[in-house]
Each structure stands twice: as C-alpha cells, then as structure tokens.
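hey can u check if this looks right to u? its 206 residues, i copy pasted from the old doc so theres a chance i mangled smth
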Amino acid sequence: MERLLVLCRHGQSDWNLKNLFTGWKDPALTPLGIEEAKAAGQRLKAKGIGFDVAFTSELSRAQHTCQLLLSELGQPNLETIRDLALNERDYGELSGLNKDDARKKWGEEQVHIWRRSYDIPPPGGESLKDTAARVLPYYVHRILPQVMSGKRTLVAAHGNSLRALIMAMEGLTGEAIIARELATGVPIVYRLNADTTVASREELAG
C-alpha cells in the first residue's frame, strides 16, 4: 500500500516580497507566488502523483496555492479540509512589520532570537514550540490516519506549521528544525513505512 504525504509551502505572498512578518495576517499571493503554485502542480504531475484528499490552513495564501496546484493536476474539486491548526506561526506584535524595522525597534539580536529560537515567542505571539503544540495533534488525529489508510494526501500550508510537521516526522530537534529552510512552492514528497516513520523523502525543486 502506498502511504504518500506531500507537503508544500504556499507560493510567495505579497508580504514575503515586502520582507514583512506575516503570521496570521492574510496577504494574497504575488504573480510569482501564483506561478510557483502552478509549477508545484506541474512537477507533481510529471511524477505521476495525484491526491485523494488535501488539507490546508484558514489563510488564503495556502488555500490559493492548494487550489492552483490541484487544478494543474486536473483535480480542482478534490476534497479539501481547512483548519486553523495548520495556520502559520502567530508573530504577535511583529505581524505586519518590516523585518529591518523590527530590528531597529528591538535590536538585531532580540529579533534573531524570536525568529530562530524554538521556544521563545515574540510579544503576543507563538514560538515554534507553541505552533507545534497545535499542529502535531491535528497531524496525528486527522492527517496521519488518511495517509496510513492509503489515501494520497496533500498538505498545503506555511513555513512554520510545516516545520512542526517535519520535526515530528523526521525526529528532528527543535534546533535542527529551526535551521531547515523551506522554499515557497516546492513540494516535498514523503513515503511512510507501516510504523509511520519516513521511508523516503524527495524535494521537487525547479
């Protein structure tokens, strides 16, 4: 039985382009982001990969990416489950700020700690540990059962919600996952063993 799980970070958003902290804010995809999402679908199609179910967040940039990707696969009406458990990390008071302006306000070192530590949240926001606390139960109870039953499963979400998933799947430490960069619009294809561990992992970069 095929136990296929594909993770894909949304295409470039308007705020990615403007170097702003985004979090739970809801900017649209840029023209480049739209092309990235379409290209992700085309790469999956070239590999002969389609889906039985898809999951995405409550934020439009992930939903739009999911929709564009599935349309390229000829599956625009695939069952797609939306849940805020898969939302991006909440950046609290940093949300909407230019990253350079945030460094001027709080200092380079403090902003780096908020961005790159596992368990220190920005003011009013979430750490990656906090994000994992909502993502991982959802993965275990909703996503993983679909994969293990043989349903080919897509998750179109965000850099940090996907980092939380990858950390659990690959057994990484908090420090290791913080250092993992996830490119926009690049599908990561996982095949799982019968015990839910990772049998193989492949990034479909351009």
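The chain has one domain: 4-203.
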